[in-house]
């Protein structure tokens, strides 16, 4: 997912690895997914070698030099392919990278998302049926309880995966709207300049209702209010 995330970020605007790293840290993505901020620079070097991104310019910040990268046309195609592949991956645990895909879905067309998710649901349901049949064969009265529980865990996991993907389809319009707002947010805010995002969010004089903000975004009947909330948050972070 780190590859898809970097390509997505650079599809919004040219930037440097430090900003992407700061965005990940500010959103605590490295604590609840397998995306690690420390792997950003390694991934960027690999993407550059593959011709998916290219160096736009170099900037000197004090004694440090920052490399600004931009997306290539090859990278744009690769991003779409990466997102399709991520949509077809299974969710394995609480640190699954797939948990962050719904906010970046506007990297591909809605009809493509729906097709990929429907296909994956079909595969998951088929896998569930195979697992259930194997359970009938393997789990008998004399079977160890630990083995029986393994099958219960697998079936439960598949049930939740199916439910997650079906819910994604139900809320696809809201997810894509949220994705668009997040893109606008990234475009307007240089996260490398935000020293302490938690402190900003908790500032008593400027505190925003973040959950309310999300609900405003998801309220498709009032896009103007969502835009106003987004602008308010951007202004706060730029101070």
UniProtKB/TrEMBL annotation:
Residue ranges of every copy of the Transcription regulator PadR N-terminal domain listed in the record:
6-80
Question: Sorted alphabetically, which Pfam families does this protein's record hold?
Answer: PadR
**UniProt-listed InterPro entries:** Metal_resp_DNA-bind_regulator (IPR052509), Tscrpt_reg_PadR_N (IPR005149), WH-like_DNA-bd_sf (IPR036388), WH_DNA-bd_sf (IPR036390)
| Coiled-coil zones | none
This protein is called PadR family transcriptional regulator
Biological source species: Clostridium brassicae
């Amino acid at each position: 997912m780190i590859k898809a995330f970097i390509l997505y970020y650079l599809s919004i605007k040219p930037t440097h690895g430090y900003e992407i790293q700061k965005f990940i840290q500010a959103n605590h993505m490295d604590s609840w997914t397998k995306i690690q901020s420390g792997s950003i620079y390694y991934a960027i070097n690999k993407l550059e070698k593959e011709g998916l991104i290219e160096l736009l310019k170099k900037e000197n910040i004090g004694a440090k030099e920052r490399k600004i990268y931009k997306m290539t046309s090859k990278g744009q195609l690769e991003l779409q392919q990466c997102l399709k592949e991520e949509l077809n991956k299974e969710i394995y645990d609480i640190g699954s990278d797939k948990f962050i895909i719904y906010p970046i879905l506007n990297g591909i067309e809605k009809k493509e998302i729906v097709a990929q998710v429907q296909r994956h649901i079909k595969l998951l349901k088929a896998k569930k049926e195979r697992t259930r049949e194997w359970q009938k064969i393997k789990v008998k009265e004399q079977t160890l309880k630990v083995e029986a529980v393994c099958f219960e865990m697998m079936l439960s996991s598949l049930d939740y995966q199916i439910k997650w993907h079906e819910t994604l389809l139900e809320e696809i319009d809201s997810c894509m709207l949220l994705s668009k707002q997040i893109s606008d947010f990234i475009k307007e805010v240089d996260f490398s300049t935000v020293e302490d995002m938690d402190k900003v969010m908790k500032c008593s004089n400027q505190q925003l209702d973040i959950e309310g903000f999300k609900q405003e975004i998801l309220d498709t009947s009032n896009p103007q209010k969502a835009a106003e909330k987004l602008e308010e948050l951007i202004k706060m972070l730029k101070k």
